[in-house]
Specification:
single chain, 40% helix, globular, binds 3-isopropylmalic acid, binds nicotinamide-adenine-dinucleotide, 2 domains, 19% strand, 12 strands, 10-stranded mixed sheet, binds manganese (II) ion, Isopropylmalate Dehydrogenase, 349 residues, two-stranded antiparallel ribbon
């Protein structure tokens, strides 16, 4: 019995998760997968009512599941940073989900803003480090609110943290067995301490992977290459902050925020799957958001837990619906209603 924790979260989170669960139910039925879900009300409303983001013991409880399925966090009435750090980052860090896996794949039938590029050219994966960098929350203020104010936000990189995510990316390049190429993206021309550690670690770990071609690109140039020559990429490995930024660009390259999904992976523990978009408050409750990203996250979840047939069915259903032309525009408000897209994919499954 597969045990899945569900955190719908804020804004459009609940409505896209509802569609994801519809597709999960259809796939489980078709592939004969037994599963059980437990829903958690973590998010902005709970925080506003109780003052609490994650209750005591929540991480230990989440650690008991086979996987976690998350919608989105971020509430217009809650100051930025509270839910993001105490809910989303608390789970990523607390469950040591050190890989943030973000596929950038253009499905046939999906519009891309990049002229002359299609599904053949746009198919790569970003492996974003997920537990270090500026995200650790080290820093502070002195002389707060005065003209002399100093603010620091420290980027932390450890040898262990760097090595494990780079090794994961090499393994992935091998497993994908496509171009067998791993591109490290950094800013080692300026961040001469932290990213020097990345460069050295990449070179050392790379010696264990003679079959994988090693490539390097600075993050600024990467933004340019992702638009100009996306076909150069197979697997990218990068730091937490850069990975966050380039995957929103990657989302657009693959058709928009409506379709980009991710997995927060702890290869030895419990992983969490979510669309990469946020709570998009202006679309909340309107049945206008595209649930495809949340559905793609279900596909990644099923694949990760080894429900291969169910995952394949979802992937094929997503591809079929997209190829059918029934969703000519993936963007919120222009795509068919949220619930109809869920129905389409569930039926195709
Ligand atoms: P956002 O991703 O919520 O929305 C930005 C825009 O992307 C939307 O206006 C919409 O045009 C598009 N979009 C988002 N989801 C879509 C969908 N399902 N279908 C179609 N289009 C979609 O980013 P934001 O406005 O910068 O942030 C809003 C809140 O979400 C903030 O509180 C932020 O901190 C939070 N956030 C959370 C996550 C997460 O939970 N992983 C990720 C990003 C942002
Ligand atoms: C994402 C989001 C998060 C991040 C925020 C909400 C903490 O932007 O999942 O990409 O920066 O990782
Ligand atoms: Mn982001």
């Amino acid at each position: 019995m597969l045990k899945i924790a569900v955190i719908p979260g804020d804004g459009i989170g609940p409505e896209v998760v509802r569609e994801g669960l519809k597709v999960l139910a259809a796939a489980a039925k078709a592939a004969d997968v037994k599963y059980d879900t437990v829903e958690y009300d973590f998010g902005g409303d709970r925080y506003l009512a109780s003052g609490e983001v994650l209750p005591k013991g929540a991480l230990e409880e989440l650690a008991q599941f086979d996987a976690i399925y998350l919608g989105a966090v971020g509430h217009p009435e809650v100051a930025p940073g509270i839910l993001e750090k105490e809910l989303l980052l608390a789970i990523r860090f607390g469950l040591d989900q050190y890989v943030n896996l973000r596929p950038i794949k253009l499905y046939p039938g999906v519009w891309t803003p990049i002229k002359d590029k299609g599904p053949e050219e746009i198919d790569f994966v970003v492996v974003r480090e997920n537990t270090e960098d500026m995200y650790v929350g080290t820093g502070g203020f002195t002389h707060y609110g005065t003209p002399q104010e100093v603010a620091t936000q420290v980027a932390v990189y450890t040898r262990r943290g760097t090595e494990r995510v780079i090794r994961y990316a090499f393994e992935l390049a091998r497993k994908r067995n496509r171009k067998k190429k791993l591109t490290m993206v950094d800013k080692s021309n300026v961040l001469t301490y932290g990213h020097d550690l990345w460069v050295r670690t990449f070179a050392e770990v790379g010696e264990e992977y003679p079959d994988i071609e090693k490539d390097h690109a600075y993050v600024d140039a990467t933004c340019m290459w992702m638009v100009k020559n996306p076909e150069w990429f197979d697997v990218i490995v990068t730091t937490n902050m850069f990975g966050d930024i380039i995957t929103d660009l990657g989302a657009m390259v693959q058709g928009g925020m409506g379709i980009a999904a991710s997995g927060n992976i702890n290869p030895e523990g419990v992983s969490m799957f979510e669309p990469i978009h946020g709570s998009a408050p202006k679309y909340a409750g309107l049945n206008k958001a595209n649930p495809m990203a949340a559905i793609c996250a279900v596909q990644m979840l099923l694949e990760h837990v080894g429900a291969t047939e169910a995952a394949e069915r979802v992937e094929k259903a997503i591809a079929d619906v997209l190829a059918s032309g029934r969703i000519p525009d993936l963007s919120a408000g222009k795509c068919p209603p949220t619930s109809e897209i869920g129905d389409m994919v569930a039926e195709a499954v």
